[in-house]
Write a structure and sequence with these properties.
Helix 1 crosses helix 3 and helix 5 packs antiparallel against helix 6. The chain has 3 domains: about 40 residues; about 90 residues, Dna Ligase, domain 1, CATH 3.30.1490; about 130 residues, no CATH class. It is mostly helical. The strands form 3 sheets. The chain has a two-stranded antiparallel ribbon. The chain has a two-stranded antiparallel sheet with strand order 3-4. The protein contains 13 helices and 6 strands.
């Protein structure tokens, strides 16, 4: 009987330890989520703050189009390898943990029961932005179609993509398509146009920069190789080579039924579209997505490289090549 009591006491003690362990782990998780929540909410508030209180760094460029040259800019290499901002890091943690919806709901509750927070991610096209806004603001199908129509008709023919600035937005629930469009374009003017100096525009006009930036946004695996992708694209432009870029072909092929960025097959390279850069030389007629500040900066400041080809392996690491033969070797080795 004495042994039984000791055994029961020991068994209870083990359960107690496990229970305490669970409490400690749960507490740590809650604390971590609180830190993430505070970081995200702080980032959102900062993004929605007065633009006059935010540092504005103007765009520069190392491109010399006239002489078909990329100037060396080693100082930018250090700038681009820095860690992302607190805002970007916080959202990455939230999205990877599957909590983005919960975080947004928490923020909406803080702002008021009717507040709607919409995150427009870099690399989306106008139809995806319309779908996102429609879902959050509970638009009808007609209203969603109106938003796309407004985008197409409010700009010149070559400006139907690239001007809906990727950011975090707060919208009243009654926001209409024309108002949402105006807010996104206003943010583009605030974040992009305000940084685009006369000297930069004379070197690389903004329409050209946005086309290249929109491709970089879709092709690069992350900030770390944006300037590398940019360098390869500029090399091909300077040497009057076809770009042969999958993302532009995806833009040509994509639709609501099969997806806006569909998987490609070899026969897709024969699609007759000005966005098919396998078939037609030069850049597409418009940007193919709405790029971030990072990709615009990369478009204006590519790495000086001898590479004309790039590919990503399964781990999304970039591998470049100077010749097609080297490129095929990279594909055999890393793909």
């Amino acid at each position: 009987m004495g042994f039984r009591k000791k055994h029961l006491k020991l068994e209870f003690s083990q359960r107690e330890k496990k229970y305490l362990k669970r409490i400690c782990i749960s507490g740590a998780v809650i604390i971590a989520l609180c830190i993430v929540l505070v970081s995200v909410l702080t980032a959102v508030v900062i993004r929605m703050g007065s633009p006059d209180k935010r540092d504005i760094e103007t765009f520069t460029t190392n491109i010399d189009i006239k002489n078909k040259n990329i100037r060396e800019t080693p100082e930018l290499d250090q700038k681009f390898i820095k860690a992302d901002s607190l805002e970007a890091s916080a959202w990455t943690v939230v999205q990877m943990s599957g909590l983005s919806a919960a975080i947004l709901q928490a923020y909406e509750e803080i702002m008021g029961t009717d507040a709607k927070v919409v995150i427009v991610n870099p690399g989306t096209r106008k139809e995806e932005v319309a779908e996102l806004l429609s879902k959050k603001l509970k638009w009808s199908e007609d209203e969603k179609a109106d938003f796309v129509k407004i985008v197409k008709e409010s700009k010149k023919e070559h400006e139907t993509e690239g001007y809906l600035f990727p950011d975090t937005y707060y919208f009243p629930p009654e926001t209409k398509p024309v108002q949402a469009y105006g807010r996104l374009v206003e943010q583009f003017e605030r974040e992009v146009i305000s940084r685009y100096t006369t000297s930069t525009d004379q070197a690389v006009d903004i329409d050209l920069a946005l086309k290249i930036a929109s491709i970089i946004q879709r092709e690069a695996a992350g900030r770390q190789d944006m300037r590398i992708v940019s360098g390869v694209i500029w090399n091909r432009i300077f040497n009057e080579m076809s770009l042969d870029i999958d993302a532009t072909l995806q833009y040509a092929k994509g639709n609501e039924k099969i997806g806006w960025w569909p998987r490609l097959t070899s026969k897709d390279k024969f699609i007759d579209s000005p966005y098919n850069t396998y078939k037609y030389e030069g850049l597409p007629p418009t940007p193919i997505s709405n790029p971030s500040l990072a990709s615009i900066t990369a478009a204006l400041n590519p790495v000086k490289t001898e590479a004309f080809f790039y590919m990503h392996d399964a781990a999304r690491k970039i591998h470049t090549a100077k010749t097609y033969k080297e490129h095929l070797r990279n594909i055999d080795t890393y793909y």
